[in-house]
Amino acid sequence: MATKRTQIAYRCPDCATATVGFLGGLSSVSDMLRLKCECGESALDIKRQNDGKINLSVPCVYCKSNHSYVLSPEIMMRDELTKFSCPYSGMGIAFIGDDESISKEIENSAEELSRIMASLEAETVSDIQPQDVGEDSMPPDPAIYDTLNFVLRDLEAEGEVHCPCDNGSYDLRFTDDGMQAYCKNCGATYDFYARSVSVAEEYLTIDSITLK
Questions:
Q1: Domain range for residue 43?
Q2: Phi and psi dihedrals of 198, rounded to 5?
Q3: Does residue 156 sit in the same domain as residue 69?
Q4: Burial class (CB in 10 A: 0-12, 13-18, 19+), 98
Q5: Which residues face 161 on adjacent strands?
Q6: Which of 52, 84, 85, 212 is 20 to 30 A from 183 via CA?
């Protein structure tokens, strides 16, 4: 049965234009898809790993650098929209879904970007990028996010993220103790006590998490 879940989109950190492309087949580990902005200054890469999982390298309109996300192929085939957020700003930077949900999320992300720019009195998107971000606001090691995001997405694909609302949309944010998974629908949370990559990697063996 064909899926409608065929599109992926991101916003270019150079020109701030939203770029939308169609997901094709990644039949082997040698396959890679590249979605490039028309301005030529950024590209989103999609590659199948040796273990069958999908690696996304997504340009970030906030950091002006790429963030890496690893997810199970099943997540890309689900009916609802999947949103990938910048671990520093919380801003949505990439989306996978059907035509309708992608179009709506592009509008939402444009409004979100406008609000951030207005709050920082920024005239262009470059004004909100790293030169204006203090060192204290940046986490010590982005690899912590990459590791725990993999854990969360893998458990989500297996149906092992349990939430009070039973219909959660999950994301991650940094905390003083590590990272926190949270449901965007009901606000329930789960804390990962990991302030180093080695501790974050210990969570790779867990079978499930329960948000409260």
A1: 1-135
A2: -60, -40
A3: no
A4: middle
A5: 209
A6: 52
